[in-house]
Each structure stands twice: as structure tokens, then as C-alpha cells.
Description:
Two copies of one chain form a homodimer. In chain A, the strands form four sheets. In chain A, strands 6-9-7-8-10 form a five-stranded mixed barrel. By secondary structure, chain A is α/β, with parallel strands linked by helices. The termini of chain A are far apart. Chain A has helices at 40-48, 66-72, 90-104, 122-137, 184-193, 207-217, 219-226, 237-244, 253-258, 279-285, 343-357, and strands at 5-10, 57-62, 81-84, 109-114, 118-119, 142-147, 158-161, 172-179, 196-206, 264-269, 273-274, 294-296, 299-303, 309-312, 317-321, 326-330, 334-339. Chain A is globular and about 60 Å long. In chain A, helix 2 links the parallel strand 2 and strand 3. The first copy, chain A, contains eleven helices and 17 strands.
Amino acid sequence: MNKNNYCVIMAGGIGSRFWPMSRNAKPKQFIDILGSGQTLIQQTYNRFTDICPEENIFVVTSDSYVELVSKQLPKLKPNQILAEPQRRNTAPCIAYAAFKIASINPDANLIVAPSDHVITQERVFHDVILKGLKFTAEQNRLLTIGIQPSRPDTGYGYIQFMPEENSQANPILKVKTFTEKPNLEMAKSFLKSGDFLWNAGIFVWNAKSILNAIKEFQPDIYSLFDEGQQKYNTPEEDAFIQRIYALCTNISIDYGVMEKAKNVYTLSTDFGWSDLGTWKSLYEHLPHDAHENAILGDQVMIENTNNCIIHISKDKLALIQGMENFIIVDTENVLLICRKDDEQQVRNMVNEVKIKKGEKYT
Amino acid sequence: MNKNNYCVIMAGGIGSRFWPMSRNAKPKQFIDILGSGQTLIQQTYNRFTDICPEENIFVVTSDSYVELVSKQLPKLKPNQILAEPQRRNTAPCIAYAAFKIASINPDANLIVAPSDHVITQERVFHDVILKGLKFTAEQNRLLTIGIQPSRPDTGYGYIQFMPEENSQANPILKVKTFTEKPNLEMAKSFLKSGDFLWNAGIFVWNAKSILNAIKEFQPDIYSLFDEGQQKYNTPEEDAFIQRIYALCTNISIDYGVMEKAKNVYTLSTDFGWSDLGTWKSLYEHLPHDAHENAILGDQVMIENTNNCIIHISKDKLALIQGMENFIIVDTENVLLICRKDDEQQVRNMVNEVKIKKGEKYT
Lengths: 362, 362
């Protein structure tokens, strides 16, 4: 295994889409949302153990989730868990990790990946990532993984590549533009053109390249972290991060760096990826019974019930009759019952909960 | 208040219709199923406090509910709670109460009433019961309260009275026959004939009259309880009942005595009565919101939800969206979601629960 390969898992999200399954105190990445026996962050970690040495895997998370991370990934040493004192989106998170890892190994070649996505074809993923690492190891290139789109999904960002370069022999393509979540019409035209990929938010680059790009396009963030050169991986690191983190611009790496840089490439692939950003996408990734229900729970009895997502705590008995196309989630102190097709209405109710009911239920 | 007036509240039922709201460990009569601030047995007790002296109110219940009764009705002295060691239907229960009360006061005039019915017009009830007590005080007559039927309900038993005697001036009529739950066609013809009343299972008689009738029509039960003449209201009563109760025939007072006796009358009335025997009848007695939902629970948020019964534990937050005509009951370890119109299908599922899941959930 190449000792220069490093992995950064971003695990600071609060997963509010899957409330009440996902809670502030234990968001989506820390739960076994697929009922596979592993939480999403455990699946993510395991995907990298034959790409990087274990000591080269780092997790960036909110300081309130450090304990959860260390419990779910017991092989991580304290120095491998980076605690963010505030949520500042992905640019500061990636800058912090890149500075810290570069101070251990200036030749580090990084994969940066979210902790809460699902990837069904792990062997394809493995090969793609190794190909990406090879592409960035010695060169000043920023690589983002692009997923061949199978439908005009309006929930994803899109990457447009330079069309002349598209060929089976060369899946690594120069990026032309990034596009935020499009409307349906636009998404359909993207698919038709054949020049667009889904932006998976998985990046590959060497530490020098990303630090150069941050220095060029987010100089304020760069200089804040640059001040700490002597402090990374020392007992002073924590206090330093505590001091500077709140001062960082709140900006994503896509918007703050990738859309501006000229050396950006995408590796076009398909490894059964989903960001599990909607109940519908979660439903698609869960195993279904004969009535197309996705059921998590030990004691769920159904009758005349079809196309539902049902998530019931262990030990709780549920009798569900006459339901069609519903989401049913029961946790210790919250019950959610809503139509699968009315996600937006549900999101509004959840926002109302946050405002009116407070921390206990969120 | 007439010191010969006594009341016997029957509270041995297990209320399985309203599972999981009603549980073996705490059946329907012991819960505030209407959200009124009082349990059904408390409402029943309070209905009698201006008819009988408090010391003349007795409760017959399963020995496993004695503690619940005494907690919910703290004015009852231990001697006023009759514990049944086994379930033996209403004839043994009524025989026990009649023997015990007759040994305190041979001139006792009794009302016998279930603990889990709802009566909305309490002043009418009060007048009707006093009229009934007057009718039975000095005479060998058995009186059963008949409710003027408002619809061809197939869930109730019916009383046919002698038609020639029906008049506004005389609401107490001689009974011709009792009929068990009829089919819909029969129920419709009952209503059309005008000679039928609903059998409310509320009885009025003096102790001597009912004991005579039990002696005549259920001599085995009579002789078992008659053996204990010297033991009622003494420290020996409990052991005596423990010994004989299992030997009693399992039979209802309607089938075992009332259908056979010749001195049976019915008092035709209407005081807003329901036996709360179905979810539908419970729904009708609960207050409704603007969308015709009957909601019990402190933290229930609904959206686009109509005609539902929703019962959620205190402190639990429920978000319910897109539901129409459903029963939703959430308790600590059971969740039930089912269509209001499919009670039978639900009952089958509940039976399956009882067989497969055992005590914990029933």
C-alpha cells in the first residue's frame, strides 16, 4: 500500500433530512440507516482500508461528535480525529485536514470523501480511487469524481466536462463548469447532451495542489491555517484551531475553489453511488419485501401495506395495516408518519418542530 | 339518600378491543380513554355517589386489578373491592356481590353496572336509576336498562318488550325476549318494529330477587356461594372465594338468568349510552378537531390529516401527514396504525400478536 495515500472523511453533517431517524445528537452517518450491521461512517472507513494505511485515515467532525467517531471507529487514534469547533462548510474543513496531513507528510496524496454516502460497487470504487490517486500523485491537478447520471435528478449538482475529451479509453476529463442543483428541464437537457456527470463530492488531489489552490482562491482561509504550521500534530493544535476556526469564511470547496481553479478534472465512473439525500433515495437502497416495503425493525407486522419505508426501534412491536407509499419512523420520543411523495411538506413540518419544540426532539 | 341502595361495578374486563391503548396490565376501564381527566371506572363511580352512600358502592374485579381499583378509587375500603381469582363471566360475579351485600343488608336494592361504558347525560341517568330502584325495592322484579336504539347496530344485544305496554307514561315494560348481536337485516327489522331496545347490561334488582332467580336458574352457582353464608365480610371470605370460584359455571347473567326468568322488565330510556365496544364508537365519543380528528396526546402535529383517531403518549412528539380515516395508537412498546374501516382485519392481527408475541405486548 502506498504510504503517501491519505484519506479524509468528512463527518460533520447533521443529516436533518432523515429526522427523526437522524438526530442532532446522532446524525445519519452514525446510524445503521441501511440495516446492514454497519453505520454509514463505518462503511465509509472500511472502503478505504485497502487504499490507505490505517494510520493515514483521518476524520473531520464537529467537536460534539468526536466521541461518537472514536466509539464507532475504534482504530482511529485521537490525532486522527479533527474536531471542528464550528460548522464552516467544506473549504475550512479541507484546508485544516490538508495543512495537518502535509505537516506529517508533504508528499501526501489525498482522497476527501463524505461519511454518509452509499456506494454499492466497492470493487469499482476501489479501482477508480487508485486510478485517481495515480493521476494526482505527482501533478498539480484537482480531481473530482463524476458519476454517470442515470436519471435527471434535480437533487444533485452536475459537472460538465470538455466534450472532445470523452472516450472510453480516457475516463479522466477536464472540467468545463460546475452547476448547482438544476430544475427538471435543465437536468433533462444535461442528460441528453451527454456531457454532464453527477458531482459526488469525492475529491482526489495531493496536499500541495489543494493547498496551492486554497492559497490562490481563498487566501483568508489559507493564511489563518498557515499561521499554525508549527502547531499541527502537537499539543497546541487544539487551542490553535479553537481560536481561528470561527474566523474562517463559511464556504464550500466546490464554490470556493473548484469552480474557480483551472486545473480541475473529473473521473467519469459509476459505482452505485447515492448521497442518500432524500427518503426516496434511501428507500431505493434498502432491501424490499414482497410488497415493496423497506422495513427496519425486529417486530414489524404488516397487512395490506405496500411501498412503505418503515423504521421502528428494536423491541417495539408495530402493527401496520392499510398503508400505501408512506414513511413511518418511530423513535423513542418521536413518531413520524407521512406520504413518501410529500417530502417538502414534511420538511416544513420538521422546521416547525425545530422552531417550536426545541432540542429535545431535534 | 336511601341506605338500602347499593351499587356493584363490574370491572374484570380486559378490554382487548382497544389494544394497544388498553392492555392486560391496564385495561380500558382503568385508562382515561376519552381524555376527560378521569378514567372510565372513575366516571362510573362518580355517577353513583349521589345514588348510594359511598360505603354501599362495591367493585368486582380480577384479583390482579385490585391494586389499580384501590388506587383509582381511593375512597373504597378493602371490603368494598371483591377480587375474582378467575374470570367466570357475569353470573358468578353478580352472585358473589349479591350474597356479600345481602349478608350486610338483607333489604339491599342493587344497581349492577359495567365499569367501562360511557354515559353522556348523567342527570337523565340519575333519574332513570332512581326510578328503577323504586320499581324493584319492594318487589320480586328483575330490571334491565334498555336504550332506545338510534341505528341498526350489529354490535349490541337487543331486548324485545311486550308491545301492548309501550307508552310514554309507562317506560317500564315487561321483557318478551333477549336477542344476541343480530345481523344487519335483523337489526333493521328490530328498529322498524319499534319493540326493541339495546341491552345496556345495567341491572336493577333487590338482593333477594336476584338471589332467588340465581337459585332457580343457576342452582350450582347458588349453592357454591350459599355455603359461605357465615364467611362474607369476615377474614375467611378471601380463602372461601379462592376455593369455590374456579368451580363456578362460566356463564353470563343474561344467558344464565335473565333469558329464563319470568319477572324481567326493562326501563326504556336514552341517556347517551355507549359500551365503547368498537373504535368507531370510541371515535364518536371523543372531541373532534376542525378536520374531524380525535386526538389524544400533548405533542401531536398534523398536516392534511382527516377523520383519524390519534392516541400518542404524553411527551412523545408525533408528526402525522396525509392520513385519512386511520387509527394511530402509540404506546411505550407498541405502535398500531390501521384503517378505521378494517376493524376485523386488525382484530385478527391482534390475535396473532397474542399468540406469537406473548405477554410483553398484550
